[in-house]
Amino acid sequence: MPFVDLKTQYQALKPQILKRIDDVLEHGQYIMGPEVRQLEERLEAYSGARHCISCASGTEALLMSLMALGVGPGDEVITTPFTFAATAEMIVLIGAKPVFVDIEPDTCNIDVAQIEAKITSRTRAIMPVSLYGQVADMDEINAIAARYGNIPVIEDAAQSFGADYKGRKSCNLSTFGCTSFFPSKPLGCYGDGGAIFTNDDALAQVCREIRVHGQSRRYVHTRVGLGGRMDTLQCAIVLAKLERFEWEIGRRLEIGALYNATLESFGIPFVRQRLDRNSVFAQYTVFVDDREAVQGRLKSEGIPSAVHYPIPLNLQPAYAHLCRPDGMPNATEAAKRVMSLPMHADLPAEEVGRIASALSRAIAG
Ligand SMILES: *Cc1c(COP(=O)(O)O)cnc(C)c1O
């Protein structure tokens, strides 16, 4: 049993993917070829955002957003410690300081009730993460940001592309939305890729320039940028994968609901979803004690599991100096107990019951 099944997906889309790849090899525009803009247009229509700027990775999307906002030394960016390192890493890389706000214990997303206390005159952005595919409390975050002089909000939507939030789409909920097309994300390519979304025309133009070394025209470097483009081939692959994406999202929702109901019947706690939004379940995550033993027992029954994330950023060597060791109790506790189960669009419904009962036995010892 695979944790994420990209092989079945490939078999289902093989003719479309090979055709798209062949088209690129034939036209030969490997950098910024026609598929790049074609993908951006499709994603603009899908998300509802005015602008999509594809880029080299999700990490690069976060970095370029921060660059476009002019965040730099002396600035603070509010974010969560319970995320993949890239979120805080790009804030540090640009010279600013990540200011951690603890998470809600049931959703593992940033706790909005604790944000205001962390805002200072140096706060230049708020960067929530829509963890495990579930959008953070973006309306409340935007309202707080507006009250404090329109602080820009960047949604780290690397795990949530395709997720609904009160009838709107993840990535189109704030100043910037940043996603990733890393192969195992809900919408993935076959290498690295990512995208920035915004409704701000000026910021979109700045991002487009940053992506090509700050050029506003060929060899006119208006600003400092970087080489942040997404390969034409990877854009072509995402275009092919979009043909099955809505079906995949539907399957993810079904499997997630089935996991919820089955685990509930076994009394196993899991990451909760709010009723006003749909998770795309980049991960389906439960809470267990004695995690290593549970993972070992699952493995002996042929069931893979993973941990996102075993050490919160507030306890990582590179970031621990940013807050007190006991400053993030919920993130610290979640990191000890979270465990993700197999989740992908091709997971047969019958397997959910088998995984849940194996998990129940594994927890019992
Ligand atoms: C995957 C991920 C990233 C980084 O995306 P890449 O495309 O791998 O650079 C950033 N933030 C979060 C929350 C992620 O899950």
What's a concise summary of this model?
With 365 residues, the protein is an alpha/beta fold. The chain has helices at 6-27, 34-47, 58-68, 86-93, 138-147, 201-211, 232-266, 291-300, 329-337, 349-364; strands at 51-55, 76-79, 97-100, 123-127, 154-156, 164-165, 168-169, 176-180, 194-198, 215-217, 220-221, 277-278, 284-287, 338-341. The strands form 5 sheets. A 4-stranded mixed sheet has the order 1-9-8-5. It has a 3-stranded parallel sheet with strand order 3-2-4, covered by helices on one side. A 3-stranded antiparallel sheet has the order 7-6-12, with no helix packed on it.
Description of the molecule:
This protein has ten helices and 14 strands. The longest helix has 35 residues, at 232-266. Strand 10 (215-217) and strand 11 (220-221) form a beta hairpin. It is globular, with a radius of gyration of 20 Å. It has 365 residues and is of the alpha/beta class. The protein has two domains: 6-101 and 108-238, Aspartate Aminotransferase, domain 2; 244-364, Aspartate Aminotransferase, domain 1. Bound molecules: pyridoxal-5'-phosphate. Residues 57-59, 83-84, 86-87, 129, 156, 158-159, 180, 182, 192, 194 line the site of pyridoxal-5'-phosphate.
